[in-house]
What we know:
Layout: H1 3-8, E1 13-20, E2 31-35, H2 37-46, E3 57-58, H3 66-78, E4 82-88, E5 91-103, E6 106-116, H4 129-142, H5 148-163, E7 167-174, E8 179-184, E9 187-188, H6 190-198, H7 204-214, E10 220-223, H8 227-232, H9 234-242, E11 248-255, E12 258-266, H10 273-305, H11 315-326, E13 335-343, H12 346-353, H13 355-373, E14 377-380, E15 385-391, H14 395-410, E16 417-425, H15 430-451
Antiparallel strand pairs: 1-2, 1-6, 2-3, 4-5, 5-6, 7-8, 7-12, 8-9, 10-11, 11-12, 13-15, 13-16, 14-15
Amino acid sequence: MDHQAFADNIKAIAAVFAFEVLPDGSFSEIRILAMNRYYAAVLPFVNPNAPKFVPNTPYSLYFKDVNFEAFVYKCASNNDPLYSCANAHGSWIHGMYLPLGSDGNTHYCCYVSKHTEEPDSGAVANRSASVSSAIINISVDLHRSQDFTEAMKQTVKNIKGICDSEICALFIVDKANETCELITENGSEPDYLNELASSMNRTPYETALAWEKDLARSDCLILDELSVIKERDKLWHDSLISYNISSIVFYAVRFNQELVGFIWAANFDSDKMMQIKETLELTTFFIGAVISNHQLLRQLEFMSMIDMLTYARNRNALNKRIDSLSSSNNNRPDKLGIVYADLNGLKTVNDNDGHEAGDKLLKHAAELLNETFEAYEIYRAGGDEFVVFCPDISEETLSERIIQLKKLAEDTADVSFAIGYGLFESDYDIINSMQLTDERMYDDKKEYYKLHPDKNRRK
């Protein structure tokens, strides 16, 4: 067969591959016998360092994708057409693997692919009944519970069953905030997350970045032994060995091509390798959509509770906290320190120097409060008024913090606070406690304006 002519007649991205069956029954390295102009056109985008193509060149000179190699081997050696859908190299890659027969110990496979920005809505129809059923079950369970962690727990449990693995987990990545979360079938496990990252001498977010690099722009690694991981990331390899892991399914979870997490299943049933890949290559898309939506809602909730000028908690957050402290729930602290800090002279700065200067003054004031009360709850209650709640603080510590705040303000050229504070215990009433603290703050402010009558623009 003229393999080049065969590839050239295909009006899509196409190439012909070959390999030999060795005497011990293993397979040789895959070689590229021919590629058409469409395949050659996308090659530089997938691998900018790709050498000029010469027929019979080893595939490894262009790519290193163990999942693609497994499909080629299975397709050609079993004379079995295969379909795959992978979210890799910045797009969705829909691939058909067609067996082209054999010549002695040499087997041939034609790979034809289509790249799209979005997943193929009809992709599920190309799956077997069992794979389609698994995809549908996971999709339903993702939306069965309104509780995000509960939905992810059930998803992990389903994937563990599909892979028949000893361990399964979802590693969620929030790139905007550089944070991570680990969810197993038992729920969110922060201690396990930190232990796992520490085993590689990394933070959780550093672990996520390393894993993204380890995928080499592919969508997954499905490995029945760990030599590829040892080659790419020895720290990860050694960590896996320390957990007695000898095989792993490792899938990137993306939404709109942005990484939002990883799924991994350790010590899985290698006989299910193809079924696992077919199932996860689409379900990761659905999981990614749910994670992305959860992160968006969490960001919107964060923005609704934060004063975007000073990054202190806002009035809305303060009202919710007051409601919580007004109720008789078990989370109410036995002791509560309350601090009112009113920024002196803000209106004068706004009138004389403009609101931009006033905003700068507010930011500086918030920085001093954060430096003093970083471990506590800082709220911007109004234009120039801040409130700090200090649960379970001692009287001595509260006094020390007030002295520190006054000293920090005295050392600046622009910030001056009127301060009222108090420590309330046992059956305190939060509203009355806040009113008393507010009155103490206004007494302090009156003294300030007696000393600085030119600053009093509130008359």
